[in-house]
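User: Here's a protein and a ligand (S-adenosylmethionine). What would the complex look like?
Assistant: Let me lay out the input and then the predicted complex.
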Amino acid sequence: MTVLEVIQKSTEFLAKKGIESPRLQAELLLAHLLKMPRMHLYLNFDRRLSDAELSALREMVKRRAQREPLQYITGSANFCGLELVVNRHVLIPRPETELLAQKGWEFLLNCGVEQPKALDFGTGSGCIAIALAVHCQRAEVWAIDCSEAALGVAKLNAERHGVLDRIRFVASDGFDALPAELRLDLIISNPPYIPSSQIERLQPEVRDYEPRQALDGGHDGLDYFRKLAAGAAPLLKPGGVLMVELGDGAADATRAVFEQRGWIVAGIECDYNGKARILIARPGNAVQA
Ligand SMILES: C[S@@+](CC[C@H](N)C(=O)[O-])C[C@H]1O[C@@H](n2cnc3c(N)ncnc32)[C@H](O)[C@@H]1O
């Protein structure tokens, strides 16, 4: 079969299985298999696939038809222009989180501290921590996660992007395993924030494949914001800030969580669709060390 025939057959199969954008998905899988940019498929429509290539593609298309996310099948995702390894131990980085990472590195570049220190709480694939280290070369970055398997992926990604020596990866449940004397200019986090009861209603790609501990934010989705509001202030230097990604429609409730703990909410930033996406807060009278 030729490239064009294979694209057509795979598209038909994925469409029948109810996969969104089936042609695009088929093309991305084939481009990954043939190690070429997707657009190059169009220059190679007549190329014949070997038996080995055909059976490898069939396997990938079957996985996608079973709703496994494309990024887990190809093993890679793009974040802020960085190609990252992903697997089922880590959340697939989302485009909306790029804005949080960008706000983070802009803060580090402009905070007036010679060697600013930042902590990424719940680093997953390492996407935010790595973007901070890449864009602010003088920053010292800490990255924590309760999942050892996720930290393994994050370290691999840091190595690939040449920042492994500038990020300290720590396995930690909450802030527990951090050194007592650590003081930071920035704490940044995209924590789990889906209310537990909504997880069953998520699309199968998320519900059945992404790690539950990366999604579940407790009964109202705010558990991790409570943890951060309760525990982050003593870790911040004077002038330090906290930046978190917000759940859909959860800006007011999240603001209230921080304000009740004495934090001053310095800003709520919207994404390109006008949705409130990032909350920026300073400790105020929340207990600081
Ligand atoms: C929503 S994911 C975010 C991953 C990554 N930062 C991103 O933006 O794609 C949340 C991460 O928090 C981690 N996590 C969950 N509970 C935690 C805890 N108690 N302490 C530390 N990390 C935790 C999960 O393992 C997961 O990797």
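Summary: Strands lie at 76-79, 82-85, 117-121, 140-145, 167-171, 184-189, 236-245, 264-270, 276-282.
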